[in-house]
Write a structure and sequence with these properties.
Blueprint lengths: L1 H21 L2 E9 L8 E6 L2 E5 L6 E6 L4 E7 L6 E6 L14 E7 L14 E8 L4 E4 L1 H25 L12 H26 L29 E9 L2 E10 L2 E10 L4 E8 L2 E5 L1 H7 L3
Parallel strand pairs: 1-7, 6-8
Antiparallel strand pairs: 1-4, 2-3, 2-5, 5-6, 8-9, 10-11, 11-12, 12-13, 13-14
Length: about 300
């Protein structure tokens, strides 16, 4: 009888925990460490002057659950590396069905400190994430991101210069690009985001405004077949030769969580990388982040 009561109590406690988690917004992500490993990476989340530590595994992956209508600050750090802050607002319009908003993916890259490194800028957030009515999902504040991008690029160039002198015998990967290439990349990114917004806007005429569902039934935004519903745990690579470009889709499945990445290679030489944040929105990421995230 006692064992039965304990079992019933345990079931009730677990059930309450599941209901509580359903009332929160799941955010997951990966921390990449440039020229290093993700061991000893720390994630602290600040809310209302209270700090909570979130576990980060040896691969840099983490998952957390946020309360709605709050303003959070994520702080990523590692001994010997420059920490980064990201502001995340979970405030959404009252007519939005929150349970239909897809979990958000955060990709963060940490660089090690070096002599005479000016890290003053990184006391400020490197990104701001808010809800967008255009895509019915959370996204980076692109205007703010473009402002901080120049400062981050300057720091990265200084880092590469220091690494080249500190480790002359080692060939380093420098992902810096020319202004012309960067302009093309931004134009392509905006073009993809514009198509995403148009698809989302078109869908709103067919479904209720507060419904967050895939709006492209037969093909996704890149013109690919839809994702399968039965991926098992592991890594899956799908290559699609299309007109004037080749798209590689990489699916990383781990239990209930699934990450989808895209490499878009155009015949004219353009090469771009994206992470799918929802069926209607793809965020541009760096080659380094793509390779780190899909390396299994």
């Amino acid at each position: 009888m006692m064992k039965r009561c304990v079992l019933i109590l345990l079931i009730l406690v677990l059930g309450m925990g599941m209901l509580k988690s359903q009332d929160k917004y799941p955010v997951r992500g990966t921390v990449f460490v440039r020229d290093g490993k993700a061991s000893k990476v720390s994630l602290s989340i600040l809310l209302d002057q209270k700090t909570t530590r979130i576990p980060v595994d040896i691969d840099g992956n983490f998952t957390t659950y946020l309360d709605w209508d709050k303003n959070y600050q994520f702080y990523f750090s590692k001994p010997g590396y420059v920490g980064k802050k990201i502001n995340f607002s979970t405030t959404v319009p009252g007519d939005i069905e929150k349970k239909n908003i897809y979990p958000y993916e955060i990709l963060v890259e940490l660089f090690s400190t070096f002599p005479n490194a000016d890290t003053t800028f990184f006391k400020n957030p490197v990104a701001k994430i808010t809800y967008s009515n255009k895509i019915n999902d959370f996204e980076y504040d692109l205007d703010y991101l473009l402002i901080v991008k120049e400062k981050i690029n300057t720091f990265q160039k200084q880092y590469y210069a220091w690494r080249k002198q500190a480790v002359p015998q080692k060939k380093l990967t420098n992902n810096s690009i020319t202004k012309a290439q960067e302009a093309k990349a931004l134009h392509y990114q905006k073009n993809v985001e514009t198509k995403n917004s148009m698809a989302s806007t078109s869908a709103q005429s067919k479904v209720t405004h507060n419904l967050k569902v895939p709006v492209i039934d037969n093909k996704n935004q890149f013109g690919l077949p839809p994702l399968k519903k039965n991926y098992t745990d592991g890594k899956f690579i799908e290559v699609y030769p299309l007109k004037a470009k080749v798209i590689t889709r990489v699916i990383i499945k781990n239990g209930a969580f699934q990450k989808v990445f895209y490499k878009v290679k155009h015949n004219w030489g353009g090469l771009y990388y994206f992470v799918e944040e929802s069926p209607n929105y793809y965020r541009s990421i760096s080659k380094y982040n793509f390779e780190k995230a899909t390396k299994r």
